[in-house]
């Protein structure tokens, strides 16, 4: 099933939720803190809806006006698989750069 379009934002959101349940504003602030990336509300809620429809997260009961989200076991599996694939890409890219380029 994978992460679909805008996988980068999905990975940021799932990585944030790996640390515990969060509502939208808390997700935005956490992602800014650990990744230095601002997720605009349109992107955030579009990706949240897609992740929820794929069973990677669930929306919890709203606390006042804020609805927290939780990563599912399937979401954790997909995130772990994504990181495994990215490690292979990183290792290959670094080795090729080292062989082909002199970088300071």
Description:
This protein has one domain: Winged helix-like DNA-binding domain superfamily/Winged helix DNA-binding domain (Arc Repressor Mutant, subunit A, Orthogonal Bundle), CATH 1.10.10.10. A two-stranded antiparallel sheet has the order 1-2. By secondary structure, the protein is mainly alpha-helical. Helix 1 packs across helix 2. It is built from 4 helices and 2 strands.
Give a short synopsis of this structure.
The chain is mainly alpha-helical and 104 residues long. It has four helices and two strands, in the order H-H-H-E-E-H.
Bin the helical content: 55-70%
Strand numbers in spatial order across the main sheet: 1-2
CATH superfamily: Winged helix-like DNA-binding domain superfamily/Winged helix DNA-binding domain
Major beta sheet summary: 2 strands, antiparallel
Euclidean distance between termini CA atoms: 40 Å
How large is the count of helical segments? 4
Calculate the mean pLDDT score and round it.
93
- H/E series: HHHEEH
Keywords:
2 strands; 62% helix; 104 residues; mainly alpha; Arc Repressor Mutant, subunit A
Q: Can you lay out the helices and strands and say which pair or pack?
A:
Elements: H1 7-17, H2 24-35, H3 41-53, E1 57-59, E2 69-71, H4 73-100
Antiparallel strand pairs: 1-2
Helix pairs in contact: 1-2
